[in-house]
């Protein structure tokens, strides 16, 4: 339950809490999200308050206050929550109702949505798996709104993400303007620290690949499957470091790096999606087709790492601008 003290019975927050606690389809939907997935919740009926949902210990916790780093931010009207509470079907019914409230209904009665996380983080945290669980109804709804492929979905999310914070999201704003020499020095210092961690992570990833190869060579598919799961976690942490620290610093130093960042983000999505697919097919570990797909993934990852290190290290090693005299 949210830590909010006394509230009127059946308030929008009460209704949402009840759905996540008791509705079978809502509980099932939440299980697709990874540990740490979070969303901020705002309500038009309580404009000065914010709560957040967070996946912890296999449960969905509803708490007062904003999440530290939310994936999504919603603002609900009372009518939108009432509409969602009437969903009696499966995940697909809930998803289509929510999307309808976001895109087809007047904001005064619907749901406003801001995507706070990069698309690749949404993939890692299970949001694409959740959409897939919605089945044909979700696919049909997406197609009717011009979203037919993962590429279309990513483009839509990126447009929402780049649009910046809406006026109703307090305390979040998009910085703009030129970067001062002092700021650029700070960004390069951050890049140099991150570059050392990236190199260590690359070494760790190669060690895990060695464990997978050794297990496959010995026919130990159980150990190989365990190492693939470990590899998936390690690669997710590696991508998170780059997306949360390195890429923003790269763009801050020089916005012309945007094209390189866009390419690397796209590769993150494709690479992690394929690794998740391989990790989810543990019963096929060791088969010729699985091995071929894994080796192709490793080849693509190696090329990505080389491009990544070139971009990061070349920028991090640039000399700082000379300090101007006071």
Number of helices: 12
In percent, how helical is the residue content? 55-70%
Number of domains: 2
The coarse overall form would be globular
Low-confidence stretches: 1-9, 162-178, 322-326
Please provide the ordered H/E string of secondary-structure elements.
Answer: HHEEEEHHEHHHHHHHH
Strand order of the largest sheet: 3-2-1-4-5
CATH topology of the largest domain: Nonspecific Lipid-transfer Protein, Chain A
Q: Count the beta strands.
A: 5
Give the N-terminus to C-terminus distance in angstroms: 55 Å
- Radius of gyration (Å): 22 Å
What percent strand?
5-15%
CATH architecture verdict of the largest domain = 2-Layer Sandwich
Taking the sheet with the most strands, its summary is:
5 strands, mixed
At the first level of CATH, the class of the largest domain is: Alpha Beta
Could you walk me through the main structural features you see in this protein, from its secondary elements to its overall organization?
This protein is of the alpha+beta class. The protein has 2 domains: 12-162, 2-Layer Sandwich (Nonspecific Lipid-transfer Protein, Chain A); 181-316, Four Helix Bundle (Hemerythrin (Met), subunit A) (Up-down Bundle). 60% of the residues lie in helices and 10% in strands. It is built from 12 helices and 5 strands. Strands 3-2-1-4-5 form a 5-stranded mixed β-sheet. The longest helix is centred in the middle third of the chain and has 37 residues, at 181-217. The chain is globular and about 55 Å long. The relative contact order is 0.08. The model is unreliable at 1-9, 162-178 and 322-326 (pLDDT under 50).
